């Protein structure tokens, strides 16, 4: 039995960042945005944090729930900042805790960019 959660590929009101890679060559701006997204996810700790947020119940996670990735708390904060700067996460402070969500267009955008290769 798998605990994997199936996420929607595209929500009707969400516009992905770029066309599928096999549709046409990316423009310079699209390539910059796409590269920043994949560069941010190329670090194993960042990928784990992104996955922890994306798969967390309710679609958001408190930093206190996702910080057990084998690095110090300041390093977790650094990596979360990099994910936010790349436009992959949004955050909201509630009292002393910060809650993170995956930017809605990100999963749709990743799916769309990879096109047929995502299937």
UniProtKB/TrEMBL annotation:
Domain HTH arsR-type, residue spans: 26-119
Keyword DNA-binding on entry: yes
Classification via CDD domains: HTH_ARSR (cd00090)
UniProt KW keywords: DNA-binding, Transcription, Transcription regulation
Entry keyword annotation includes Transcription regulation: yes
Pfam families: HTH_5
Domain of life of the source: Bacteria
Gene3D superfamilies tied to this protein: Winged helix-like DNA-binding domain superfamily/Winged helix DNA-binding domain
InterPro entries: ArsR-like_HTH, HTH_ArsR_DNA-bd_dom, HTH_MetalResp_TranReg, WH-like_DNA-bd_sf, WH_DNA-bd_sf
Protein name (Swiss-Prot/TrEMBL): ArsR/SmtB family transcription factor
Organism of derivation: Streptomyces flavidovirens
